[in-house]
């Protein structure tokens, strides 16, 4: 089988790390990097440290408005699909790279397969929610990570070729955890070995693009007695500079550049609490049994909330403070996102579908 996989942003490299190696045990994969993320610490480091195959193509689209960025990817992906003639176009998650792949693939011959299908935050102000819905409705084969995602697809009329395989980020974490814990030296470099600390990430436009909101979040975190390690997305650094807040928070927080996956897993595993607006990090904290405080009003990863290990606090200082002093604890033994063998199940399902 010939598979053309599309990746472009950080979490997609982590997902491809788990899945590409499995697909390549039996099939030919052309890996296409759209170039949505291009900085070394958001892109190159993942390929270098995780042994992800080097992309066969890098479309080099870079940053732009959503329309221009997606359009540039779409135009180039269409040409590539024409050239490579894959049986399957393989997509991950909910970024603009996902949407471009779905649109290009749906209007051409190959089957379109979507990993992380069926997730819904029910907040259409998030660009990712639009990307999820449209990508699902342009796909042929669906790999939702949970039963709830299966139900959401059904509620939108998608009931055929839906396979709950579990979550591929669980596979990735299980593959990387031991190496991360034995090889990462970051905690020592930060002087945090054996020390209590909070790990935070903030990158959603809703949290970064309004000065008061970003300041309220960071000010509340900085007031905690524990050090706060914050590997900052370039968007967040740009905004802090623009708001004249960068110097202040460089002093009050341990602001560092984004780190590679192995270092980030090591940071998460030892943190007292993870505070984030990321999708993937909510799940990883849950898998690692680390309390997660989510800087959003809603989440598509509701199973982590139901299990008790995650709490939604938005940007409300009182709610953040409460959660930091009474961290959420998972009380459930359920494994809502499968058993960490999603990649194998995906490969086997693809084989049955294409034959
Ligand atoms: C994107 C995804 C988001 C995902 C995130 C993962 C969309 C709509 N958003 O958000 O779902 O959670 O990736 O991290 O697809 N920039 C750099 N260097 C880079 C890439 C970006 O400096 O290598 C800066 C640019 O100023 C750019 C901004 O970050 O404008 C935002 O980048 P973009 O890829 O548009 O969105 P993300 O916020 O990264
Ligand atoms: N991550 C990383 N280094 C960092 C921050 C995050 O390797 O400095 C990893 C994290 O472990 C997870 C993924 O990136 O696997 C999450 O990506 P992000 O939060 O950017 O996107 P989202 O999941 O919200 O789409």
Automatic annotation (TrEMBL):
<protein>
    <submittedName>
        <fullName>UDP-N-acetylglucosamine 2-epimerase (Non-hydrolyzing)</fullName>
        <ecNumber>5.1.3.14</ecNumber>
    </submittedName>
</protein>
<dbReference type="GO" id="GO:0008761">
    <property type="term" value="F:UDP-N-acetylglucosamine 2-epimerase activity"/>
</dbReference>
<dbReference type="Pfam" id="PF02350">
    <property type="entry name" value="Epimerase_2"/>
</dbReference>
<feature type="region of interest" description="Disordered">
    <location>
        <begin position="322"/>
        <end position="341"/>
    </location>
</feature>
<keyword id="KW-0413">Isomerase</keyword>
<dbReference type="InterPro" id="IPR029767">
    <property type="entry name" value="WecB-like"/>
</dbReference>
<feature type="domain" description="UDP-N-acetylglucosamine 2-epimerase">
    <location>
        <begin position="25"/>
        <end position="351"/>
    </location>
</feature>
<dbReference type="InterPro" id="IPR003331">
    <property type="entry name" value="UDP_GlcNAc_Epimerase_2_dom"/>
</dbReference>
């Amino acid at each position: 089988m010939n598979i053309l996989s599309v990746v472009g942003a950080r979490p997609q490299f982590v997902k491809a790390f788990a899945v590409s190696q499995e697909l390549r045990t039996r099939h030919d994969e052309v890996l296409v990097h759209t170039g949505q993320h291009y900085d070394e610490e958001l892109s190159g480091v993942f390929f270098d440290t995780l042994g992800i195959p080097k992309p066969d193509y890098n479309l080099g689209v870079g940053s732009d408005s959503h329309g221009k960025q997606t359009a540039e990817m779409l135009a180039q992906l269409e040409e590539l699909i024409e050239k490579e003639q894959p049986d399957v176009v393989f997509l991950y998650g909910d970024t603009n790279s996902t949407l471009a792949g779905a649109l290009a693939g749906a209007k051409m011959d190959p089957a379109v397969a979507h990993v992380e299908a069926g997730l819904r935050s029910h907040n259409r102000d998030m660009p990712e929610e639009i990307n999820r819905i449209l990508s699902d409705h342009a796909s042929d084969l669906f790999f939702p990570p949970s039963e709830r995602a299966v139900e959401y697809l059904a509620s939108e009329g998608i009931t055929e070729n839906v396979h709950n395989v579990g979550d591929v980020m669980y596979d990735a974490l299980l593959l990387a955890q031991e190496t991360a814990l034995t090889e990462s030296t970051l905690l020592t470099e930060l002087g945090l070995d054996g020390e209590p600390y909070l790990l935070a990430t903030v990158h959603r436009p809703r949290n970064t693009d309004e000065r008061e909101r970003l300041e309220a979040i960071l000010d509340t975190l900085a007031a905690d007695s524990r050090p706060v390690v914050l590997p900052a997305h370039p968007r967040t650094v740009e905004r802090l500079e623009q708001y004249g807040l960068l110097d202040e928070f460089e002093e009050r927080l341990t602001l560092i550049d984004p780190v590679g996956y192995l270092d980030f897993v090591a940071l998460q595993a030892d943190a007292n609490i993870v505070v984030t607006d990321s999708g993937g990090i909510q799940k990883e904290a849950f898998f690692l049994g680390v309390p997660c405080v989510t800087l959003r009003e809603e989440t598509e990863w509701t199973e982590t909330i139901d299990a008790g290990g995650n709490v939604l606090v938005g940007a409300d200082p009182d709610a953040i403070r409460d959660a930091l002093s009474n961290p959420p604890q998972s009380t459930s033994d359920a494994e809502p996102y499968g058993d960490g063998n999603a990649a194998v199940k995906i490969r086997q399902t693809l084989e049955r579908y294409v034959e």
